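Lab meeting, action items carried over

1. Structure of the three-component assembly. Owner: GW. Status: complete.
Input record:
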Amino acid sequence: MAAVVVKDLRKVFGDVAALDGVSLSVRDGEFLVLLGPSGCGKTTFLRIIAGLERQTSGDVLINDEIVNDITPRARGVAMVFQSYGLYPHLTVANNIAFPLRTQGTTRPEIGRKVEWAAGLLGIDHLLHRRPRQLSGGERQRVALARALVRNPTVFLLDEPLSNLDAKLRASARSELKQFQQKVATTTIYVTHDQVEAMGMGDRIAVIDHGKLRQVGTPSAIYDHPADDFVASFLGTPPMNLVEHSGGLLGFRPEHFLPREMLDGAALSELLFRIDRMEYLGSERILYGALDGFQAKCDVAAKLPAHVPLSGIRAGEWHKFAVREAELRYFDRDGRCTVSPKEQAR
Amino acid sequence: MSAIAEAAAPRRPPRSRFTTFDRLEVLGPLFIIPAILYVVVLVGLPFLLALYYSVSAYSIFNPSWTFVGLKNFREVIDSEIFRRTLANTLIFTISAQIIGLLLGKIGAMLLMQEFPGRRLARALIVLPWAVPVSLATLAWVWMFDSLYSVINWTLVAAGLIDPAHRPQWLGQEDLAMIAVVTVHAWRLFPFGVVIFLAGFTSVPQDVLDAATIDGAGFWRRNYQIILPIIAPIIMIALIFGTVFTFTDLSVVYLLTKGGPINSTQVLGTLAFQVGILSGDVAHGAAICLFLFPFLLVAVILLLRSLRRREI
Amino acid sequence: MRSEREISTSAVTRRGFLKRVGATAGTAALASAVSLPFVSTALAQVKTLKILQWSHFVPQYDKWFDGFAAEWGKKNGVTVTVDHIPHLELPARAAAEVSAGAGHDIFAFNGSGGPHLYEKHVADLGSLVSEVEKKHGKVHQIGRQIAYNEDTKVWSALPAYYISFPGLYRKDLWDEIGMKPDTWEDIHVGGAKLKAKGAPIGIALGHSVDPNLSYRSMLWSYGASECDQTGKRVTINSKETLEVVKLVRAIYKDAMEPEVLSWDDASNNRYLASGRGSWIHNPISAYRSIQKATPELADKIYVWKTPAGPIRRLACGAPNSYVVWRFARNKDTAIEFLRYWTDNWVAAFEASTGYNHPLFENLVPKPMPILSNDPTSHPADKLQVLETADEWHATYGYPGPAGPASDEVADNFIVVDMMAKAATDKATPEEAVAWAQKEIELIYKKWSAA
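Predicted assembly:
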C-alpha cells in the first residue's frame, strides 16, 4: 500500500518549472530520501505534499485520497524544517504541545503525549527551556518530537541535519534512522547530501531540474545509475564519464585500479596518465587523463591507502583496468543503456 | 644624557599626524560629546529648571525663586479642571495607542499581500506621519467643522444621519474626545504599519509554515505565534507612541483648545495655558511634571524591552 | 473674532518645543538663543528701534504702520525695524524676550493681561500717558484697566486701541418678526422666533476667544462680574450670575444650534456668511468679509450696539497696548516714537479701516472717518453706531483692572465653561456657578500671593 502518491506533479513559478511532471509513490512505512542539488525542486515537492503550496497541476494522494484541496492541518502530515521552525516564545513542552492544542486534545492527554515524545527523543530534561537555550541537536529533537506527537501519516523532513556540525550529523543520522524504524512512520526526507541519502534511505529518489531522474534502493542508484546525471551526482569522486562511440562510458573510481591489482578475465585495460594525487588517509585519489578517450573532467581512480604504490608516479603513463561488469554505458541523451557489444549481439 | 637622547631620536619611526585621532579612547568621547551636550543643555537643564520652577513661586509677574515646597502641586491638584485633564490625558493616550496600533496591524497585514500598486500604497501610507502635525490637524479641523464637515456631509448623503441632528464633532464632549483620539490614531497609524511590517517580515517563514502544518488557522497563527514573537517590537512602538501622544499638545490645541468644557483638555495644553499664556510658570511647571512619572514608567518599560530583544 | 486659522497654525508649530517635559523652562532656556541676532545688530547700529507687534487682521494697517515707522526713522536718524508675528505667539515671545533680557524695544500686547503681568519688566510710561491725556483727552476705562496699577501707580503700557464687539444682525429677518436685537432679552425672545424660522442666532460656546468676550459682556450687563472693583475678591457666585447662566441656558436651547459648542473664532463669521445666522456678537470683520464675498447678503446685515441688560449696556472689547521693555536700549527713542504715533492717530484709524478704536477721548474727533460715512456700505451710515463704542466697552477684569488673574481665568475659559455646563445640562446653573467660583478663586488666590 502506498502512503503518498503523486501523479504528474507540476509547479510553475513565473516561467520557471520547479517541478516538471513528477510521479512517485511512497510506500507505507518507507524511508524515502529525495536527493538533488539545491534548487532542483525537492523542497517545493515537500511543501506541495504538506499543502503549504498548491501545485500547478497534478494530484497528491495521501492514504489513497486526493488531498489537492485539503488544508495542511487536515492532511495529517508533520514536517520538520531546515531551521526547525520552533516557536521561539514557547517552552519546549509548549512547542511539542502546540499541534495537539490546535486539535483540541484534552489537557491530560497533551501532558501524556508530550512526555511520551520527549522520552522517546531523550529531551525530558529540556521541557522547560526555550528554543534559544538549546543546542542545534536538541532543537532538532524538539522539532522531531513536535512532529511525532500528532501520530502523522507522513513525516516530511526538509534537510533537518544541515544545521548541525559534521560530527553531530553522523550520530544524528543513525539516531534518526533508528527512530524512524521504531515509529515506522512513512517518511519523506529531503537532502542534497548523498551520504545522508545513501545511509538512511530505504529508497532514494533523485531529482534534478524539476524532473525525477531515478528512484531505487541506494545500491541500485549507486551501482546502476539510470542516467549520466545520477552517475555524476553520486559518489566522491563521482563516476568517471568519458566519450565513447557517440555516447558515454562510465566507471566508478574505486573500480578503476592499476592493472596489476586486478586479475581474471573480462578486463578493459586503459592507459592512464596520472597528473596529481590526493592522500586522504584511508584512500588515495589519483587524477589524470586516459589515452584515447575524451572526458569533460579529470578521470579519477580511488585506491585503498594501504596498497603500496609501486612505480606509480605523477606525470607518468600507467596501465590501469576496469572489470567489464563495472562499465556503464550511456546513450547520446545520457540514458543508461546496455553495452555496444551486447547491442551488437 | 641629552646626547644619547638625540642620537636615539632619528631611529624612531616617523610619527603619523593622525595618531591622536586614531586612538579610540580619544575618538570615542569626541564623537559622543555632541549627544551629551544635547541631552544636558536641551533636555537636562530645562528639566532641572522645570523641577525648580515647580517648587518655587516663579511667575512672569514676580520672577522670584522663593521656595514654596509642594504648594504648587497641592493647588494644581485642587483644581477640578486639572483632575479632569489628567484623566483625559490617560484616556486620550491609551485609546489613541490601541486604535493606532490596531489599524497599524491591519494595514500592515494588507500591505503584506501582493496587489497592484502595493509599492505606491506603502509609500502613501507614511504620509500622515510625514505631514507636519499642524497642517494635518488643520485638515482635520475642516473635516470636523460644524457647518462644512465632510464627514457629516458624507453621513447625511449616505442617509445615515439626520442633517438636523448631525454630530458636532468638536462640540459634544464625547465626540470631541473621539475626534482628538481619531486624529492621533491617524497620525500613529503609519508608524504602527511600519513597525508591524518590520515585525511580520522578521518572523521566520519556517515558523509560520510549522504553525500552519501544526494545524493553526489564521487567528491562532496571528495571536499565538506572530504576536508573541513580535511583541518586543510592538512594545517599543507602543511606548514611543505613548510618549509621543502623552506629551503632544498641538492636536488638541488646534482642534478644540481643550474644549468643550475641558473634555479634551490634556496636560500639555493646560500647562501651556497656565504656564505660558497666563505667565504662571511655577504652576505650569507643576502641571508639566505630572507627565514625568508616566513617562518615566514608559521609558523604563522601553529600556527593558530593548534589553530583552538583545538576548 | 478673527478668521485666521493659518496664524494659529504656525503659532503652535513653533511651540512644538512645549511637547517636552519641562517645556515651560525650555522657553526661558531658548530665549537667549532666539535673541542673539538682535543683540548683535543692536550693537552694530548707533540708534535703532525694534518693534514687535501682531500681524493685524487688516493687512493695510500693517503696511501703513511699517511705512509710517520707516519714515519717522528716516526723519530722526533711527533705523526702525517692525516685526510682525501671529498674535497667538505673542505670550511665548514675550516670555522669551524677558528671560533673555533682550529682543525688541517696543512690544505690542494683544489681549488684556500682558502689561500687568510684565509690570516689573517694563518702563513706567506714566508721563507719556498723562502727556497724551493732556493733548488727546481722557484715557478710556479699558486703557486704565489694562495698563494702570492702582497700588503701584505705575502705567506699564501705552493703551493703543481696542477692537469693538457689537452685534451683527440680519435686519430683514428681524424686521419680519418686528424686533431689533437691542437687549439680551431680545436675543432670547427674537432668537427663539428666528430659530423656529430656520435662522438661529449664534454665540460660540467652546474654547475660543469670542465667547470669553460675549459671556463677560452678558454678565456685566446684568450686574454680575468675576471680581469686584479692587480686582482681588472673586464675586462670580451671585444671583446676578445665576440669572445670566439661566438666560444663556435658555438662549442655547431656544435660539441656538448645538454647533455653537464646537465653534472657533471663525465659525460665527462663516455662520453669518452662510445666510443661516440671524445675529452674531462679533467685530465688523465678519461683515467686511461678507461684503467681499456676497455683497447682496452684506446689504441685509446691520450693525448694532452690544445687547443691553437690565443694569447696563457693556461689551468686552479686545484691547491692544504698547510696552517699552525695561531692558530696551533706546527707551527714549521708543517713547518718542509712541508719542509720534499717537499724534497721528487719525491716519492710523483710517488705515485700520475703523477697526482700531481709540482709547483716548478725542483721538478721533466725531464724525469719525469711515464709521460715519462708509462708501462701501448701504446705507453709508451703517457703521455709525460704532462711533459711540467707547460708551459701551470695557475689558477683562471689569469692574477691576485686567491683570494676570483675570487673564488666566480667560485663558482657561472658566466663564465660558460655566455657561456650557449649564447650557448642556452637565450641571445645574447653581452647580456651574459654584464650580466657576471655586476655580476662579484658586486662580485669584494664586496671583494675589504673587
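2. GW to write a short summary for the group page. Key points so far: The radius of gyration of chain A is 24 Å. The CA atoms of residues 29 and 181 of chain A lie 8 Å apart.
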